[in-house]
Amino acid sequence: LPRIGIESDFTKEKFSTQKMAAPTGVDPAMWAALLRWSMKCQADGDGTAPTDFKKMSKEDRDFLEEVMKEGIVDHVKRSAEIVDELKNKCISPISEGNPLTDEACEELEIMMEELQDIVEQIDFAKALVQIGGMPPLIEMANETNVPEILRMYALAIIATTAQNNPYAQDALLGMGALPIFVALLAPQEGEAAVTPSSKLRQKALYATSCLVRSHARAEASFCVDLGGFGILMTIISAGKQPDGNTQLERRATFLTNALFSSVPDVCLDGTWEPMTEALVSQLESASDVDLREQTVNALLGLAHRGFKAPLLERFGERINGFVSNCRQGAVDDDEEKSGNAAAELRLWEEFLSCV
Question: From the Swiss-Prot or TrEMBL record, what is one GO molecular function term (predicted)?
Fold first, then answer.
């Protein structure tokens, strides 16, 4: 069917997103796309007859905007609502000595999962910091009487908010969050001390990693002030024990690799050798492919920083053993084993060839 004058007239009357800007908390791109779609639908009609385009009246525009507002969640407003719920239904009752019921805990879990989804977008992560969302989450993560699942959610939300977000990293450092996370990683002391579960420690290490990485002041605080390398070494060394946690070791090795690549030399003084001993020992016992790859990458990072010669002097015989095992494994009949061995061998060859 013919379409009369739609394109030219519609172009002249192209809807300006500046005239109907996205409401606060609404993704501007999504808002603009919905507006364009709505205008096009009006221009096209239902497709059963020729349709003349006519300019939308102010009343129609106001109606359209109201309908679209109702259909789109204001994520900043929703984040604030969830934070208020966490204060009123978790922090306040527990501070008064009232444990949460299972129903209350499940309700809060659902809300925190929603908040986690919201902060996946960095603009909304920044907004969560601006509306005061971090202090309640830090308090929940640090309070032993809060159900562990909610503490884990709190740490995960903080981690996502901080990741690659200097604004949030600065704010969290100013709130004293880093020592709290590190305390959850360090061995607990005293008769009344309760060591957090491995799952909670994983989330604490995740939050620590996201807060520290690529932030010079946070890296220095972690390594120098809080003994970060010693804590990471303890986690990595635990892998040789029967109750070692591979996921926790992966996270610790990943953060170690990141720090080896970025911290100033002063942070490595007196620490690189015991850390390397822990990493080499980890390679001697680890079978997890990802863990082995991260471990070799950490050693490779040190080599690229000029530590190749002392590494070979101190650990050369053991490193040669790893290389020999990889060469043998690369010709294994099992395709998966040979592929993994070949991939690790390439990393070792890069290590040996770096200057």
Answer: adenyl-nucleotide exchange factor activity
**What would the 3-class secondary structure string for 44-57 be?**
HCCCCCCCCCCCCC
281, 185, 252, 268 alpha-carbon torsion, rounded to 10°:
-80
Q: Which helix (H) or strand (E) holds 31?
A: helix 28-44
Q: Measured on CA atoms in the order 312, 314, 317, 320, is the torsion positive or negative?
A: negative
The dihedral sign for the CA sequence 60, 62, 65, 69: negative
Residue pLDDT, tens place only, 218-263: 999 999 999 999 999 999 998 665 556 899 999 999 999 999 999 9
- The stretches in the chain having pLDDT less than 70 are 1-54, 64, 66-73, 187-194, 239-244
With 0-12 CB in 10 A as exposed, 13-18 as middle and 19+ as buried, what is 160? buried
Instruction: Report d(CA 176, CA 346) in Å as an integer.
Output: 42
Q: Which burial class, exposed, middle or buried, applies to 165 when counting CB atoms under 10 A from its CB (0-12, 13-18, 19+)?
A: buried
Model pLDDT, residue 13 = 37
User: Within 213-307, where are the H helices?
Assistant: 216-220, 228-237, 246-262, 265-268, 272-285, 289-302
Let me know if residue 174 belongs to a domain: yes
Per this entry, what is the length of the chain? 355
For residue 154, the enclosing domain spans 73-187+194-226
CATH of the domain at 142: 1.25.10.10
- Per the CB < 8 A criterion, the answer to whether 156 and 206 are in contact is yes
In terms of domains, do 171 and 256 share one? no
**Separation CA 258–CA 305 (nearest Å):** 13
What is the reported pLDDT for 63? 72
